Amino acid sequence: MEKEYLRLEYIIFDNLGDLDEKDQELVNNAIEASSRAYAPYSNFHVGAAIRLSNNMIIQGNNQENIAYPSGLCAERVTLFYAHSAYPNEAIETIAIYANNIEKTYKEIITPCGACRQVMAEIQTVQNMPLRVILLSPLMKGIILPSVNLLLPFQFEL
Fold first, then answer.
1. For site-directed labelling of 49, which of 4, 86, 91, 103 has its Cα 20 to 30 A away?
2. How far apart (Å, rounded) are the C-alpha atoms in residues 25 and 135?
3. Is 4 a catalytic residue?
4. How far apart are the first and last CA of the chain?
5. Is 157's pLDDT higher than 70?
6. Average pLDDT for the chain
7. CA distance 37 to 62
8. Could you give the CA distance from residue 112 to residue 122 in angstroms, rounded to a whole number?
9. CATH 3.40.140.10 correct for 11-149
10. 118-155 residue pLDDT tens
């Protein structure tokens, strides 16, 4: 038996001005997308924006349904649309913004396990890292160079 160690290395930013122009644009698209979320039950509005390898940005948001769990998270809405509409374009970066319109969270809200697994599989299929930017309502966040940091022991066949 031997002991292994997992090292996580990521970037923390304190405001949007710390990001380069492309990342600022992507984050602003995620914020905009969150404003159109359909979340009448949780009031938890999540927006996602992805940048494809052709530089196109695609937005998505969470869609709830009274027949829980029929809704879908913003990350999967966005990723599935991008993969179906642009199957030959790699997804370079996903920015995710979450906010509850009833109370302000100070911390970054991370993707659920199902979304992490979908992101991990997309990263595997496209054979290149999928960067992840997570943003709090206070405009602070983290940048992960790969989904592997969100799901280091992903399900693979």
1. 103
2. 13
3. no
4. 24
5. no
6. 94
7. 5
8. 16
9. yes
10. 999 999 999 999 999 999 999 999 999 999 999 998 88
